[in-house]
Design a protein that fits this description.
Elements: H1 4-34, H2 65-70, H3 74-80, H4 119-124, H5 130-138, H6 140-143, H7 157-169
Keywords: Electron transport, Heme, Iron, Metal-binding, Transport
Pfam families: Cytochrom_C
Domain Cytochrome c: 72-171
């Protein structure tokens, strides 16, 4: 059915088609980038002017953490705790990868003698106040550079406030 001449013609047609497409692509690229003039970069030919709307960029006013914390829900924070319990425990003295968090709100940073804290935390703060916990939970590596905690942080301030409110209800 197929002889050598038919196969040669088919391969030649395929190669010729590919050559035409490659040359066409090269020619289009040259025309597009040089603008057909060979000058390279030049100013845009037509610019559309846009009238200034006069509207200022909307400024988002940041609410102080104390106000957010005052309105925080410990019940909502309990749901957020699920992400923490893989490394921490709520029972006093029972440590996981991280130290036990029972009574963490208001206690000294290096509270447990039987847990190896990183020195970065002691340099960042002395006591875990709600404000210090908020800053730490937002992004631990920025608050205490060199900390061993590998958590990326919580971006939402309401979530952080709810979690801290929940932790404040757990006695140590």
């Amino acid at each position: 059915m197929f002889d050598t001449m038919t196969t040669t013609k088919a391969i030649g047609a395929l190669c010729g088609t590919l050559l035409i497409f490659m040359l066409g692509g090269w020619l289009a690229e040259e025309l597009y980038h040089s603008g057909g003039h060979g000058h390279g970069d030049h100013a845009q030919a037509y610019v559309i002017e846009v009238a200034d709307t006069g509207a200022e960029a909307e400024v988002v006013e940041e609410v102080p953490f104390a106000e957010v914390y005052a309105a925080a829900s410990a019940a909502d924070g309990e749901g957020l705790w699920r992400g923490c319990r893989s490394c921490h425990a709520l029972e006093p003295g029972q440590h996981g990868t991280g130290p036990a968090l029972a009574g963490v709100v208001g206690r000294p940073v290096q509270f447990y003698d039987d847990y190896g804290y990183s020195g970065a935390l002691a340099e960042a703060t002395d006591v875990w106040t709600p404000e210090a916990l908020n800053a730490f939970l937002e992004r631990p590596s920025a608050y205490a550079p060199g900390t061993a905690m590998s958590f990326n942080g919580m971006r939402d301030v309401e979530d952080r406030a709810n979690l801290i409110a929940y932790l404040a209800t757990i006695d140590g």
